[in-house]
Predict the structure of 4-hydroxy-2-oxoglutarate aldolase, mitochondrial.
Amino acid sequence: MLGPQVWSSVRQGLSRGLSRNVRGWASGEGKKVDIAGIYPPVTTPFTATAEVDYGKLEENLHKLGTLPFRGFVVQGSNGEFPFLTSSERLEVVSRVRQAMPKNRLLLAGSGCESTQATVEMTVSMAQVGADAAMVVTPCYYRGRMSSAALIHHYTKVADLSPIPVVLYSVPANTGLDLPVDAVFTLSQHPNIVGMKDSGGDVTRIGLIVHKTRKQDFQVLAGSAGFLMASYALGAVGGVCALANVLGAQVCQLERLCLTGQWEDAQKLQHRLIEPNAAVTRRFGIPGLKKTMDWFGYYGGPCRAPLQELSPAEEEALRMDFTSNGWL
Amino acid sequence: MLGPQVWSSVRQGLSRGLSRNVRGWASGEGKKVDIAGIYPPVTTPFTATAEVDYGKLEENLHKLGTLPFRGFVVQGSNGEFPFLTSSERLEVVSRVRQAMPKNRLLLAGSGCESTQATVEMTVSMAQVGADAAMVVTPCYYRGRMSSAALIHHYTKVADLSPIPVVLYSVPANTGLDLPVDAVFTLSQHPNIVGMKDSGGDVTRIGLIVHKTRKQDFQVLAGSAGFLMASYALGAVGGVCALANVLGAQVCQLERLCLTGQWEDAQKLQHRLIEPNAAVTRRFGIPGLKKTMDWFGYYGGPCRAPLQELSPAEEEALRMDFTSNGWL
Amino acid sequence: MLGPQVWSSVRQGLSRGLSRNVRGWASGEGKKVDIAGIYPPVTTPFTATAEVDYGKLEENLHKLGTLPFRGFVVQGSNGEFPFLTSSERLEVVSRVRQAMPKNRLLLAGSGCESTQATVEMTVSMAQVGADAAMVVTPCYYRGRMSSAALIHHYTKVADLSPIPVVLYSVPANTGLDLPVDAVFTLSQHPNIVGMKDSGGDVTRIGLIVHKTRKQDFQVLAGSAGFLMASYALGAVGGVCALANVLGAQVCQLERLCLTGQWEDAQKLQHRLIEPNAAVTRRFGIPGLKKTMDWFGYYGGPCRAPLQELSPAEEEALRMDFTSNGWL
Amino acid sequence: MLGPQVWSSVRQGLSRGLSRNVRGWASGEGKKVDIAGIYPPVTTPFTATAEVDYGKLEENLHKLGTLPFRGFVVQGSNGEFPFLTSSERLEVVSRVRQAMPKNRLLLAGSGCESTQATVEMTVSMAQVGADAAMVVTPCYYRGRMSSAALIHHYTKVADLSPIPVVLYSVPANTGLDLPVDAVFTLSQHPNIVGMKDSGGDVTRIGLIVHKTRKQDFQVLAGSAGFLMASYALGAVGGVCALANVLGAQVCQLERLCLTGQWEDAQKLQHRLIEPNAAVTRRFGIPGLKKTMDWFGYYGGPCRAPLQELSPAEEEALRMDFTSNGWL
């Protein structure tokens, strides 16, 4: 397997040829960040008494840092961000910034329900070291989250953010798809650099890539289950829960796609679908954390109300890995 | 129309005969609160710069206080609670406590995503004057919110709450129905006194009333659109957004149902369905606040990302009131 | 319990006062049929080799005929009509006409996917004795079944039908709700007399009754689970699968509602919710037929692909009846 | 562009290497048909008086026959099969058989709601010339269409069919996904050769290919919008409404995928997404037929209740083609 450095140059040569640097648009130089690549959405470790375990977080990062990831997503849905206080959210970003290799990107989930709170969280996350902000759609009032409302929300956040903004659509959690027409409008904002789409509809991903082809706008697949298909349609990477446990394999799938080895990519992709479903839709974060325990990371408990897996669930989870040759 | 005092005795005589007093279970006397009656879910007024306008809040309460409501719900979905900071949430409850008549109930929405945060918010709300806590289902991880998880969550909250707990299921916002079997289990908890169900499925409401008939457990309809049907099936009241603008009429519907005047109740209910849909499902809080402006209350703007109605929407909203004879 | 004759006069005095006679609009006299009352949607008995068992059909009708039903629905969803050939559909209607008491109404389900086929089936059913046609929404192309398309469909059918037409909306089977605005438009057609709504949203039922109050238009609840609530909102009867097994009880619920005995109605309604769910949503026609076997009717097998209940399902089905005191 | 003959050999060399011949399994030789390739789902032309226009059908076939399709699907959802009588269904198949080139495959949609009717239709279609039967999931009783029921249904049909069976899952029409576990079980039946999946979830398509890799089982994408992604995941072709109007382009996309020209494939795929959505999900068969008129085929009217496009819809339809350079 390639090391991170070599990997980085392969990636640069193969991705959409964007020459973005890792710096904010607000710096005045108008340069954007290139977000192409694979990211694990880092989980938040808790102690037995449900305190954030920053030591375990750092240990996980040290291990993950040896893999050729483009960077790390902190406080995506897998980070249990809705269970963290504002200060915990910032402290987690700060600790990850310090624990991770310097040459990687840190995408921090800064979404809140209100526009104002999202702006404030985004600014704060920039201050503690985030390279870009990944902003989930507000969703509690989904019946009123029209394209116009979402465009207004994201425009305001992007206007005021010192770091580039990545749109984040995750209908399994929010019950809401960021509409394609809203994505198209937002892609023209100079401080919005891309999107993470976790919905799994690759026709939609293809359409977004197509409609935004004249903008500097990149699309990341939100899950390893449709990573290869997303590459085929023009996505440039993925934020994959599965990369927390099968990181090398997800990065290998990236490499096979970028180098056009589609047959091998297909075989590998096939073997990742069930494990990926197991740590996402099927068993959620409790499943992901349990699997992390198996693969040498610290998973540990979730905060309530998320519950531990039952023995039967744990057995089914294991089967999804063993039947595909990963355990 | 009956005044509040007379009204209260009518209600006591007619509701399910529960002799609950307004005091917490945790007081050691084992007495529960009787929540039967009508509640407006109070909106949170904002200034033009999106600050909470506590003065307007108090003015609204003074006007609403002249109507024969059983009490007030603060920070239900119509209170824009996901847009408020923790301290704003508490301050709003505190101000409402002071502004409202003494002989009414204050139900405060204390739900958060994590169990721990919900417990803390519930305790704090009790300290600033809430009579009972209305706890919405956590929902971001809805795929893992099994009956077991929800039972665990609510049990923990009820165990630690100094005030009685009211379950709150609102699938239009949460994408999640609190399962009937979980409601049944939770109805046996000594500190859980009832439920607000906003889903609109009155068969379900009837089943919940039926299954919990041996517990001291009361069900409130979550919307005026199915208030009469809910009374027919055994609900004891309602938390109705529409009561913020047509409060007298909603209370009259209550009286007609409680006194068995079903024909008149039907006629009144019919005329409330469209206005109710307009200020809830169809136009949301922006619609409700706009209507409040028309009816002599302070509505004002919502916090972003909620947007003002378009002129066409405002026209349609008005039509839903005029065509039923309310404007 | 009242006998059918007495019952009929009670019903006439209590229902919405419509003086409709049982004759078609096309007779030129402009008189409509009054469809108020309770109907079992008759099941289609099959032999062990999946032939229609007309003898058992007649036996069931003879037993059902002793109950104070307003009439019978043939080839609603519970009649397995999608599994019958056109000639079987007509033969079943013909046999029911002969086996049922003369003074009852025969509503025959004549819906097909195409407008033309629906017209032809409606005409044929009139010829073999149907009093009115109950026409389900076409649904295979539900993405194109706009209000305009459905209005066109039903208008054509009603124009050409020699017997009155009853609209039929059953989203659990069709994935489609007949929109309220379409119902309102269609309620003005002289040959459309009412609607069976099986969706269970009584707010919607109330709105339909309200919007069509100036037309001769009657609404029937499509299931016993929300029958009482539907009466409360202005429906005039119900087509209830449960009436195939607890027919006397469903008729008693009708009587309690029509005579304003709401407390007793509520108690009875409560005990019918679970059995009703068991023979509809939960276990479908196989559950209904199994229960018919228990209650002295002929249930028998369904046509494939409908499968028999598993032993565990049968046990759960029985529990839904025993726990409510019906077995 | 390659001609049909050359094309066929390219396809044989590139598809999954299955050496299936075009003959039924029931012939006793145990050889299966290879269904790899592109198929237009042929529309059924109607005259102004809604009669089947067999002449126009043949004309369309003659034109379509010049393109390098693997064959033709008759009476998929785009064939308006639910609007045809049984004898029309058979006559259409018969006419297509005669009008189409001899060396192509004829897949005939033979699904009905009952198992017995499906068996009979399948046998009849074989008699009038179908090479394989494409059997849609029964759906009216979707609440009871468990894996067990669907396995029973398809097994019976495949047991009794003289021609190979292709499973057909189209949730937009049926409200039902054929479950992956049922597909896996059915893939082991000697007379079930593959599946058309129109759901658009390519993760699911990948999983099906993966789980059935040890069987002679082929998957066809059910729409051009996700054709490239489906090839990437292991599908061997597609049944694409869009191929009725942009047939050469869809076949070119096939060729680019089969020859590993993924970059060009991506560009072409991108330009097909909006036109494809326009003639399927967005405007349905009326949109497809209108477009056929534009592209030199006979589209004509649909049977009622399907309605013509409004002028505004027609304009939007045209825009979806012009904005992508196809008109």
